[in-house]
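Throughout our pipeline, every protein is held as a single compact record rather than as scattered files. Such a record has a labelled line for the sequence and another for the backbone structure tokens. This encoding replaces a full spatial description with a residue-level series of whole-number codes. For reference, a complete record is included directly beneath this paragraph.
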Amino acid sequence: MKKISFLLCLFVLLSAFTCEDEPLEGDFVSENTDVNPSLIGTWALVEFNADITSTSNFEGEIFELGFITELAESDYNLVFTETNYTVSGDYTLNSTTIINGEINDSYTQESTDVFGEGVYSTSGNVMTINGSFLDYEVDGMPAVVDDVDQDADFELSNDGQILTFFQNEEQLQEDNNLDVNTVIEATSIWQKVE
């Protein structure tokens, strides 16, 4: 029963989970309401961290699944124009899976020759994109972003030379005898390339 519960929780987590991922391709309509000229240009990825915790209650049995992912190496760029973005390059992520508070597995994911593109819009300090900037796996399974808009708070610092994205959200899914509460805390830091 515990193995079935684990697999069911993992499936629900991956189905509902939205995170920073490789962007979806397509012709999407941009609705930039507040284009920030400081964003336009090339940004190099210098740091990425994501902590995901999913607590499931299946017929009274509580199960907690966690993932910690961080950037190990990067030669990866994000380029903004007024309405579009592209991402390209290589990066390596280290990840750890935690089940009910105990480390279960650690692994490394190398992504090479990545390329993606899309459109973005901003409203104040919130950026909306259709897709995501990074592609990574959760316990060997791709974290897939559906064809929906993703929002992340962003901040420019160090005289506009550092761009930081924050994605902190909580998702609750209730379905018959299964309740899943997922908390996502992700941060990526990019440095302007002159």
In short: Residues 2-193 form one domain. Residues 38 and 159 are 10 Å apart (CA to CA).
